[in-house]
Design brief:
412 residues, Rossmann fold, 2 domains, 8-stranded mixed β-sheet, 6-stranded parallel β-sheet, globular
Length: 412
């Protein structure tokens, strides 16, 4: 089986998007399938129309158009479609597998129809909701509604849909998409990368002033929807209850400057540490310093519908997790069993939940073991990848039996 993946961006860029993509492609290769990928003009590393090998994976790059704004998006889709078509010509895939955002699906759809190839469209988040979460969009605005309508249009015309969680699946079914057209392929962890927790580095702990600390950590991107301002705001109450409590923030992003300013103005500024971005190969050293990984996502449509990757990585590292009680977290964490859930958008609730965890360590080992077992059994990429196979086989069989094979009724 030969699968060509159509991506917004990819390696060597580092993000949750690229880590999920790498895991999918590597797991599919291990299954004996041939894979390649095409990255779009939004990859932001303009290498022209090059073909590159990164980490043993083949990426066809798309030259970014010179236009900007709406016309730039249109030109980008056209350029992307041409590049996908060229990759199809050289790679000869059996399946096109496009990944969100919807611009990727639109470009892939052109090629799928022209080449008579089946198209799987995988949605990791709805583009309109991601824009709201990133502060670049407004829920209910004309642009929001138009993007949502475009997404629905593309979903109806793709031959099969994959989503990363039940929240997204339920939303699509509510839009009238047949349930049997959708498969859930949840976020997972590559246990070859996160399977063996690193030993604590005493020198690194000393350099960060965490030698005898009760350490709360966040490792990831600093977006507004992550609720890190609420985590910083919780620290005075947490330190009052647990004087050795410290907060370690590893990463960066749009909220970096605002969070640093907020922390500097905090009465417990000395208890808050910023590390900045670190190479992915160094991340495990920082996980090893943290007692509890905190994920205080704000309550909004994006966080209710979408499951994050980072809590799973923490569980795989044998770490305790505490997270806001939003829909995406509830799909991953069983309160009081594999982790702790606290009220979102509430610094006092965060402080109380974290203080209670540090005050009662009796079941820490059991909770960590159950969380790790959950990842191994239900969120391990080596097994998650099996969820794609029935879709691929069904579409390939339909294409083989009938060269004009049945498309979605939305095309009729």
């Amino acid at each position: 089986m030969r699968i060509l993946h159509v991506l917004d961006h990819g390696l060597p860029l580092q993000s949750g998007y690229t880590f999920r993509t790498r895991a999918i492609l590597k797991a599919q290769e291990q299954r004996g399938w041939a894979v390649a990928a095409v990255t779009g003009p939004r990859h932001h590393e303009d290498r022209g129309d090059a073909v590159e090998s990164i980490d043993g994976l083949t990426f066809h790059r798309t030259r970014a158009p010179r236009r900007h704004g709406a016309w730039g998006e249109v030109a980008g889709i056209a350029a992307f479609a041409r590049r996908i078509d060229a990759a199809v010509e050289s790679f000869r895939p059996d399946i096109l597998h496009a990944h969100s955002p919807v611009l990727d699906a639109l470009a892939a759809l052109r090629v799928a129809r022209a080449r008579r190839l089946p198209l799987v469209y995988e949605i990791r988040a709805f583009w309109e909701d991601a824009a709201v979460g990133n502060g670049t969009g407004v829920e209910g605005s004309a642009k929001y509604r138009a993007t949502r309508a475009l997404e629905t249009w593309a979903v109806r015309r793709a031959d099969a849909i994959a989503v990363i969680c039940e929240g997204l699946r339920g939303d699509l079914i509510a839009r009238g998409i047949p349930a049997d057209k959708i498969v859930v392929s949840p976020n997972g962890v590559d246990l070859t990368l996160f399977g063996a927790p690193a030993a604590r580095d005493p020198a690194l702990a000393r350099d960060l002033g965490l030698e005898d600390a009760e350490t709360v950590g966040f490792i990831g991107s600093f977006y507004d929807y992550e609720g890190l301002d609420d985590l910083v705001a919780s620290m005075p109450a947490l330190v009052a209850a647990r004087p050795r409590a410290r907060l370690l923030l590893v990463g960066g992003g749009p909220m970096d400057a605002a969070l640093r300013a907020q922390a500097a103005a905090s009465p417990v500024a000395s208890a808050i540490r910023f590390v900045g971005r670190v190479p992915h190969t160094e991340v495990e050293r920082y996980y090893a310093l943290v007692d509890v990984l905190a994920y205080p996502r704000k309550a909004m449509r994006l966080t209710d519908l979408v499951t994050p990757l980072k809590p799973l990585e923490a569980m795989a590292q044998g770490k305790l997790v505490a997270a806001s009680d939003v829909g995406g977290h509830r799909e991953l964490i069983r309160h009081g069993d594999t982790g702790t859930l606290f009220r979102p958008d509430d610094p006092a609730a965060i402080a109380a939940a974290l203080a209670a965890l540090f005050a009662d360590r009796g079941d820490w080992d059991g909770r960590r073991a159950r969380a790790r077992a959950f990842v191994e059994a239900e969120r391990n990429w080596s097994s998650n990848i099996c969820r794609y196979e029935p879709i691929y086989q069904r579409l390939m069989t339909a294409a083989t039996v009938d060269g004009s094979w049945q498309r979605s009724s939305a095309d009729n």
